[in-house]
Amino acid sequence: MSIIALLLFSCNSNMVFDQYKAIENHQWHSENDINFIVSNLDTISARNVFINIRNNKKYEFSSLFLIAKMEFPSGYRVVDTLEYEMTDSYGNWLGSGFTDIKENKLFYKENVVFSEKGDYKFKVQQVTRSVHDIEGKLPLKGITDVGLYIEKIKK
What we know:
single chain; mainly beta; 4-stranded antiparallel beta sheet; 50% strand
């Protein structure tokens, strides 16, 4: 039994931060930002940052558009517009999972050094639109959870 616990721990030994926020009724409105606060203790080591998305079969699109914002403790901000493929060219869901829920670990920032001590604020907003909803008034259906995952870079 202790060998299994050791294996589970060693698999996640590079994990620095891992948190999910549930999307109410699996309907993500464009004005509902998903926020995370990460307290940085290490100002030297490089990290990879991922946005994790869980979706069900009610998700209507083959891709996902996001605006991701990272705010440093000093107030400096980095804003990125991101596009992720959610299906392959045949319409099959990408990601992992054996049920109707698929989980996608999407690269956001690679080899980042959080050089300032303090709280880093991450904000994720969906900006995926259908042809009939240019202004984004309709919620994005089928997204069940949004997460942020930060890991140490393996040497």
